[in-house]
Design brief:
Radius of gyration: 23 Å
Distance between the termini: 54 Å
Strand content: 5-15%
CATH architecture of the largest domain: 3-Layer(aba) Sandwich
Largest sheet: 5 strands, parallel
Number of domains: 2
Number of strands: 5
Number of helices: 18
CATH superfamily of the largest domain: P-loop containing nucleotide triphosphate hydrolases
Structural class: mainly alpha
Order of helices and strands: HEHHEHHHHHEHEHEHHHHHHHH
Shape: globular
Length: about 425
């Protein structure tokens, strides 16, 4: 067991020992850097705990087969995703080296995404899924078509359907919640008390540190009196951000940072790539249509241009971080609108003209939100500046709701955002 967890010997030994001794506690907390194998370990742990035999990696029991395909009804997986680029990266690997291993990697990457749309999690909130349902159903049909072609050894005819899957997955990524909705935790808690189909249920909550106060309280209720047949696995890249009450109720498993040599070995072994990277996350980010580092750079210019204008009008807005962003934008001699239009051009109008960029709107929005958060956290930021940043942040959240619920154009939403905060222009859309 855990043969697919590379260069994490200590974590592997701890987990193997607990499982062999049947001493797996109700809640585990996996902490470590992004791309260190936390989700891989969590999914493997879920498989082994459900196994009808000895939990061997190649076990062919019904429980293991369903866990390997991520179709087991006793598994829930939710929380913000770390690597939304995984479907496109594994698709490229599958097309360049078509075999059962690459096929397995590709299908699992799509199943990880689909798990976030499990009907159990969205019970009572179906209206929120109205725009995503078509993509979910389409992915299920496309995966079935791929399975049929692979079973008939028609791998060379897969290019078109695989590309469609990547495009559909990219559009679906936009509907994965940025945080951890309280309704999902409540639905999970209701599901957890129902008897499992197999031996045991497993709940995997990614990025548990992103939960807000109400969500944390709901999570604590189920952790205080966990059902005997359920194991909870929480993951986080920021141990310090996990509240003490959750830490006290969880067994900590630490995942070490992998060296650059280890990261390159994994990339070579899993994806047949010789790309020089420092860590696994870098490999995925580099292979994203709209890489996060590019989004971060454009977002800093976008926020800087807004700040430059606002701070020029209100002397009470002061702060080191904000001033640096405003100065950089001013040096670039670009307005927020010009930055926005440049991003729209790079991303095919945020995916409306090129579907491979379907999730670029939310990639950019998250990058903007991170810039605003850094200003709010800057101790030199004045009260007036923080109030302005709060208004920007609130409007960003509202835009996300409008995009998901009302099918609004990303370009129009962002241009209206610029209008609202001081740059009048005529829409080019």
């Amino acid at each position: 067991m855990f043969e697919n967890l590379l260069f994490q010997d200590r974590a592997k030994e701890q987990l193997t020992s607990m499982i062999a001794g049947e001493k797996v506690p109700p809640a585990l907390l996996f902490t470590g850097p992004e791309g260190s194998g936390k989700l891989t370990a969590a999914l493997e742990c879920a498989r082994v705990l459900s196994c009808e035999k000895e939990g061997l990696w190649n076990c062919e029991c019904g429980q293991c087969n369903r866990h390997r395909s991520l179709s087991h009804p006793d598994l829930l997986l939710f929380g913000p995703r770390n690597l939304p680029q995984e479907p496109s990266v594994t698709a490229e690997y599958f097309m360049h080296s078509p075999n059962l291993t690459s096929y397995y990697a590709f299908v699992r990457s799509i199943r990880k995404l689909l798990k976030h749309f499990d009907p159990v999690l969205w019970a009572g909130e179906e209206a929120r899924l109205s725009k995503a349902i078509a993509s979910i159903e389409s992915l299920e049909e496309q995966l079935q078509e791929i399975q049929t072609l692979v079973s008939r050894s028609k791998i060379q005819t897969l290019d078109t359907i695989v590309n469609r899957v990547v495009e559909t997955a990219s559009s679906l990524e936009a509907f994965v919640p940025d945080g951890i909705p309280i309704f999902m935790v409540r639905n999970m808690a209701a599901w957890a008390v129902i008897a499992p189909v197999g031996k045991r249920k497993t709940v995997i909550l990614q990025n548990a540190d992103t939960a807000n106060e109400s969500t944390r309280n709901a999570m604590l209720k189920i952790l205080e009196e966990p059902p005997e047949t359920v194991r909870f696995i929480l993951t986080s890249s920021r141990r310090a951000a996990v509240i003490a009450t959750i830490l006290s109720r969880s067994r900590l498993i630490s995942f070490e940072p992998r060296t650059s040599a280890q990261a390159r070995h994994i990339v070579s072994r899993l994806f047949r790539s010789q790309e020089k990277v420092e860590n696994i996350s870098e490999f995925f980010h580099k292979n994203s249509p709209f890489p996060p580092d590019k989004a971060e750079d454009e977002a800093s210019l976008f926020v800087g241009a807004l700040l430059d204008r606002a701070m020029g009008k209100d002397a009470a807005m002061t702060g080191d971080r904000a001033s640096n962003l405003a100065r950089r934008a001013r040096d670039q001699k670009g307005s927020a609108l010009e930055v926005l239009r440049a991003v729209a051009e790079q991303t095919g109008s945020f995916g409306s003209k090129n579907t491979k960029f379907s999730n670029s709107f939310f990639v950019f929005m998250r990058a903007v939100a991170q810039q605003l958060a850094s200003i709010a956290a800057d101790p030199t930021s004045s009260v007036a500046l923080i109030m302005y940043v709060d208004r920007l942040t609130s409007k960003l959240r509202e835009m996300g709701v409008q995009y998901r619920s009302f099918n609004r154009s990303p370009e129009l939403l962002l241009e209206a955002f610029v209008d609202m905060f001081g740059e009048y222009h005529e829409s080019s859309v």
